[in-house]
Structures are given as C-alpha cells and as structure tokens.
Amino acid sequence: MRELLAGVGLAAVVILLYYQSSLLPLLLLAAVFLLLFNPAGLKTMRIGAIGKRARGQSISFNQIGGQETAKKELLEALDFVMKPQEVKHMGIRPLKGVLLVGPPGTGKTLLAKAAASYTGSSFLSVAGSEFIEVYAGVGAQRVRQLFEQCRQKARREGRNSAILFIDEIDILGGQRGRHSSHLEYDQTLNQLLVEMDGLGSSGDLNILVIAATNRPEALDPALLRPGRFDRVVQVDLPDLEGRKQILELHLRNKPVEENISLEKIARETFGFSGAHLESLANESAILAMREGRRRIGEKHLLEAIDKVIMGEKLERKPEKEEMWRIAVHETGHALVSEALRPGSVSQVTITPRGKALGYVRHQPERDYYIYTAAQLEEQIAVLLGGTGSEKLVLGSRSTGSQSDFQQAVRLAKKIIAAGLSSLGVVSMEDLPAGLLHRTIQEIIAAQEQRVSELLAPQVELIKHIARIILEKEKISGEFLRRHLLSATGSAV
Ligand code: ATP
C-alpha cells in the first residue's frame, strides 16, 4: 500500500513541477521522501502503545501456583537486581538477561510481572512479533526505542531498576541468516545484542531483560552467550500439586460448594497449563450460573474440564444409527482401558463437542514423565479399542477412528524413536521410510490383535454398556466399573 502511495505521490510531484513552480511540489516531495526513507519514524506511536499495555496490575509470586523450581531460580537471579552494591563490591558481572523456557500458558508472563513487583522495578512488556517488519532497519530502530522507553519509564516512576519482558523472543531472536528477509531479522537481533551489551553502563539504572520462549532451540546462540541471557529458567506444565494450587488461586474469588475435592479435579487435568486451569475455573462458574446455581459444584468443574479439552457442546445431534455407532466405539475404548489399566476411565460421553462426537476421559493414577514400551503399547491398544469394537459389533469400521489412528501412529513413532522397538536404537532421520512404515505397522498390528482377542468374548457386554451410554449420554468411570462388575461378576 505504502509503495503504491509513494508511486502516486512521485507522479503527482512530477506533474505539478511540470505545470507550475510553486512550493507545493517541494512539500509533496519531502512527504514522499519521508514515507520512503523513514518508515520507522511512523512507527514510533506503536511503541507508545506497547508501553501502555504493560501497565497491568502488579502480581506477587504468591499469586502464581506451582512452579516452585522456576520461582526459586528466578528469585535467586533477582537477588542480583536487589543487591547492586554487593554485586559491584564482589566484582560480579551484572545479570542482564533471564530466559524463561516453557509451553504456552504456564505463567511466564506472570513470573516476569512478579519479578518486577518483587524487585520494585518498573515493568515494560513487548512481543517479539512486534519488531518484525519488511523494511530493513525498522525493527532495529524499535529495539533502540524500546530500551530508551524502558529507561524513561523507570525514571518517570522514580525507580532505579526496570524489567523489560520480551515474549516470543524466538521470533526476534531466531538464528541469523535463516529467514528469507534475513537482513531485517538480523539487524533487529544485532540491535538487541548491542543494547544488551550496553546494559549496566547507564548509571544508576539497572535494566533486566526477561524473555520467554517455547522454542529455545530456535534461538541464535549469540543470545545465550554469557553476559546476555545467561540464566535459563525452565517453566514446565504444572504437576499435580501445582494444578491444585492454581485451581485454588482461580477459585478463590468464586463461590464454591464445600466438600469439593480439588485434588480430584487436579488429578483429572494432567497436561493442563495454568491458562487451561484458569479457563476451567471460569467455565465452571459460567456453567453453574447457567443452571441458576449460587455456587460452583464438583459437577460443574468436571464438565468444565470437557469444555476446556474438547470445546463447546454442539447442538447438532447425529442420527440414531450414528449415535449407536459412536456409543459402541466409545464403549470399546473404555473396556480396553479398564481391562489393561483397571480404574483408569474417568468418564465416557457421546455428547458432541468441538470436533469430537464422543470421547473417553482417562485418569492417570499419577503424573507420568517417562513411559515404558508396555505403557505406550497399552495406550495404542486403548486407541484401537474404538474401531475394534465397531468391527466386532457392527461388522464394519468408520471414519470416526481417523484421529485414533493418527495418535496411534504418533505413539508407535515414539516407541521407535526411543529405541524401544524391534529395531533397537535407531536414528529416525537415517531410517529408510519403508522400514519405518513397516515397523509402525508391526507395532500397531500387534495391538490390533491384542484388542480383538480382548473384545471378542465381550460382544454382549459392549452392547449392554453402549445401550446405557446411549440412554444417559454420559457415564462416570465409577458407574462403568459398577456395571462391569454386576454384568460379569468381575471387571473385564
Ligand atoms: P505464553 O507463552 O502463551 O505467552 P505464558 O507462559 O506467558 O504464556 P501467562 O500469560 O503468564 O502464560 O499465563 C496466562 C494466564 O494463565 C494467566 O493470566 C493466569 O490466569 C493463568 N496462569 C498460568 N500459569 C499460572 C500459574 N502458575 N498460576 C496461576 N495462574 C496461572
């Protein structure tokens, strides 16, 4: 657009110069020149907007659930900001940057904000993506302006330290020479390095850059060199205790029934980030309000888990025949899961939500961080239980199993990559595609066989449970296990 405007402007200048010789063409020429050669100047206002966004409410470390290790490491690093005289006396190189590494929504921004409150620093936040422009030099100029703005803000607020938070640093600090418009990217990153190297020489003002990324491997090594981001703090998904604490924090301002076991909810939310848990607490309140309740109950929290995982309930209802197939499919998953890992099913539902027509929620007996081959094979078997059940009861399979198969293939690849398959330890990159494909098929075929042996004697049981699910739409794991016991005299 700008190029078009510049072209039109230039043409207008030439025409005006040709027909009359007033000051107007010269003024126009100056405007075009500005537009063409100083686009960065026009962006200054956006930097102002960044500053505004940073003026959020202050946060303390107590308002961040879990993340004990990250908090501890960050607090240790912040001591350098809190004790500048001692640091100077001991001849310690001032800490300039801390890199927070972890998946989205785990509280990296919260940690940076808490760091600012804890150290009494002024706080400014930007995202890496805000620096990337097609024009070479614009990003670099913005980096310069940002550091200047950070200093000014701290002075205005009468602080002697400032924290500059750069989210998505991988966008601005990716490895040099990798991008197609690499001149712009490289200049922006170079400017950041220059600014960081210059920190500590601005008199009394202490600036600490806290950056966040979930792709540390994409960062230019120059950023991680000592003297720049030389502290790396891992911010992982919360563990069981962390999830419980985060839930408590986000339910604190909401009316909640007594006797709710947050431990149970935390157990059922393995893999949730802090942002997911915040959303869960919020959704549970919305569900309770929709029902006209004054307090949030356990059932609202449980239903909110489904909503956060799968999305909003869909009004559209499949036809009766399709519903029967979905019920048979989900029953297959549930029975295989209970057979291989008794007590593992938390809920079976055929309520369509988001993209799923039904699903079984599992409850890990504990948080797992590593898996054995047997555990991964069990997971594949559970995934294949749906299609196995359809084939057995209805005599055919359907497209409803596509995402199950995709997940099963992913797990099979994980087994191979971890050196747990019949191939032994292999390099995935050097493995011929044909061999990889055959090994994946081998792993999956073995589990298909296991599932069909497990389910073959249970046709009547599958139909019985599927009928109950069809009628109730949703059953809990306990309900399922009670029925399995009464129907067979023992679990599957
Ligand atoms: P991204 O990488 O996507 O920028 P992030 O790691 O910076 O995410 P935050 O922006 O800090 O995540 O968190 C988003 C929201 O999730 C917070 O506003 C808060 O409501 C909630 N949250 C995340 N982690 C926690 C936590 N540990 N304790 C309490 N709330 C949390």
Task: Summarize this structure briefly.
By secondary structure, the chain is an alpha/beta fold. The chain is built from 20 helices and eight strands. The longest helix is centred in the C-terminal third of the chain and has 23 residues.
Report on the architecture of this protein:
- There is one protein chain.
- By secondary structure, the protein is α/β, with parallel strands linked by helices.
- The chain has 3 domains: 62-234, Rossmann fold (3-Layer(aba) Sandwich); 240-310, Helicase, Ruva Protein, domain 3; 320-488, Peptidase M41 (Methane Monooxygenase Hydroxylase, Chain G, domain 1, Up-down Bundle), CATH 1.20.58.760.
- 57% of the residues lie in helices and 9% in strands.
- It has 20 helices and 8 strands.
- The chain has helices at 2-19, 24-37, 39-53, 68-82, 84-89, 108-119, 138-156, 169-172, 182-198, 221-224, 240-251, 262-267, 274-290, 298-310, 320-340, 373-394, 402-417, 433-455, 459-472, 477-488; strands at 97-101, 122-127, 161-167, 206-213, 229-234, 345-349, 359-362, 474-476.
- The strands form 2 sheets. It has a 5-stranded parallel beta sheet, with helices on both faces. A 3-stranded antiparallel beta sheet has the order 7-6-8.
- Helix 11 (240-251) crosses helix 13 (274-290), helix 13 (274-290) crosses helix 14 and helix 16 packs antiparallel against helix 17 (402-417).
- The model is unreliable at 33-55 (pLDDT under 50).
- Bound molecules: adenosine-5'-triphosphate (ATP).
- Adenosine-5'-triphosphate binds at residues 64-67, 104-110, 167, 212, 246, 249, 274-275, 278.
- Adenosine-5'-triphosphate is lined by residues 64-67, 104-110, 167, 212, 246, 249, 274-275, 278.
